[in-house]
Amino acid sequence: MKLGKIIAAGLGPGGLEHLPTGTYRLLKNKPKLYLRTAKHPIAEDLLKENIPFESFDYLYEQCETFEEVYRSIVEVLLKETEKEGEIVYGVPGHPMVAERTVEMLLNIKTADISVEILPAVSCLGAVYAALKIDPAQGLTVVDCLELQNKRIDPAFPLLCIQLYNRRIASEVKLLLMEEYPEEHTVKVVQNAGIGGKERIREIPLYELDRLKDIDHLTSLYVPSLRLYAETNVNSAFEGLVEVLARLRGPDGCPWDKQQTHESLKRYLIEETYEVIEAIEERDMNKLREELGDLLLQVIFHARVAEEQGKFDITEVIEEIKEKLVRRHPHVFGSLVVKSVSDVNKNWEKIKQKEKSDRPLFDVPRSLPALLRAEKIQKKAAGVGFDWSHIDGVWDKIEEEMRELKAAVKEGSFEQRVSELGDLLFSVVNLSRFLNIDPEEALSRTVNKFIERFNYVEERLKAEGKEPKEASLEEMDRLWDEAKKKI
């Protein structure tokens, strides 16, 4: 037989308007009432209703830690229950939501004292309403005092309740800054559900412990990095920059932290070609993904430069923005142009003026040879060094062909290399006169060759043969078939 009972009653987030009717009737019947804290809006209402109570606020002053406070409260409650037989223990909000003392009471193994739970609107419901958020969409809720023992995933929004004071706010800030950028925007919610007193402030995380009015009715909402990034284009970009900063940070990824401008070069080239491949395949899903990978490389290089004190991503963006405005006076100024040709000519004039101290052929050596040759030829043509008619280009190709044949017949290896290069350079010149991208033309031919040879391979396989087992005549025959189909 139970000798005593503790009724753990939720008092809701505010005054009597949030108190359940059954709990109000219980309190009016005047069983002995203890409040975890009288620093709650309902305390004043209880006094007006002539409902006496005792609070444990004095323990918060006497004890060194919150855990010690909670243990002391439980000890007093058990002793008072043995003496009184039945008592009511009132706690803010809901007794089963972030109430360590109620959790401790339920875990005590005693045969002569029972614990009954009287639910109420929790502070969480009031905070959800104030923030206009749906916790079912994914939300991590944690007591600020338990934050250091919890694993936080920044991909999900976080709600820290019972911030209490500036000292705890400082501890919470430092813990969160291990997971979030210090500039990450957070929301401080005070007096949620209390009419006329409810307040929400948006501040950067690093300012959290600078607020002077933090109290026991203060909660902290931390938007996820993912949701923060999805807000709009600007914040999406900022979110990506934040993620990379985290990856390069002290507790980031070992691989990301060791990368340099030099080590990243190959990835920049690879991602660029993958973007081109997605464009050629007209695969928009793939293009979206590959553009993201390419953007990451840009941000990665900017981050490395920022860590070296050279420049940051903002400077990169500002410089290209200014360049675009400067090079489009027909859009952002008063210049009048009549055609794309006029635009291109004016663009080159502006570039030359901007880079007057650079040589004419300031073309990156790392470009693919066909693309580099085309750019150099265009620059030469821009200053008048060009054929006046395409017939001159045809004559040059024939001349280079003769010289290559002579080098193959009688010349050295170096001569053959030189003459072959001259012929290819002349063919690139022809492509320029025909307004054909030589890189794209060659790429198409390579892809066509692959498709046709795949056809030959499949036909041979149907006959039980591998290409190395077939004669040249057989492969030529199948190749001719492929040319008709592909």
DSSP helical segment count = 20
Report the uncertain regions: none
Strand order of the largest sheet: 3-2-4-1-5
Our estimate of the beta-strand percent is 5-15%
Which H/E pattern describes the elements?
EHEHEHHEHEHEEHEEEHHHHHHHHHHHHH
* Terminal residue distance: 91 Å
Briefly, what CATH class of the largest domain?
Answer: Alpha Beta
Radius of gyration: 37 Å
The overall number of domains is: 5
Biggest sheet character: 5 strands, parallel
CATH topology of the largest domain: Cobalt-precorrin-4 Transmethylase, domain 1
- CATH H level, superfamily name of the largest domain: Tetrapyrrole methylase, N-terminal domain
Q: What shape does the CA trace take? A: elongated
Helical content band: 55-70%
Structural class: alpha/beta
- Calculate the mean pLDDT score and round it: 86
State the total count of DSSP E strands. Answer: 10
The CATH architecture of the largest domain can be named as: 3-Layer(aba) Sandwich
Please give a quick description of this structure.
The chain has about 475 residues and is an alpha/beta fold. It is about 55% helix and about 10% strand. Helix 11 packs antiparallel against helix 12, helix 16 (about 370-380) crosses helix 18 (about 415-435) and helix 17 (about 390-410) packs antiparallel against helix 18.
Structure description:
The protein has 486 residues and is of the alpha/beta class. It has 5 domains: 4-121, 3-Layer(aba) Sandwich (Cobalt-precorrin-4 Transmethylase, domain 1); 125-226, Tetrapyrrole methylase, C-terminal domain (Methyltransferase, Cobalt-precorrin-4 Transmethylase, Domain 2); 233-314, MazG-like (Helix Hairpins, Orthogonal Bundle), CATH 1.10.287.1080; 359-436, Helix Hairpins (Orthogonal Bundle); 440-485. It is built from 20 helices and 10 strands. It has helices at 21-28, 41-48, 57-62, 66-84, 100-107, 123-131, 166-176, 225-230, 233-248, 254-257, 261-281, 284-307, 313-326, 329-332, 340-354, 369-382, 390-410, 413-433, 438-462, 472-485; strands at 4-10, 32-35, 54-55, 86-91, 113-118, 140-143, 158-161, 185-190, 199-204, 218-222. Helix 4 packs across helix 5, helix 11 (261-281) packs antiparallel against helix 12 and helix 16 crosses helix 18 (413-433). The radius of gyration is 37 Å and the shape is elongated. The mean pLDDT is 86.
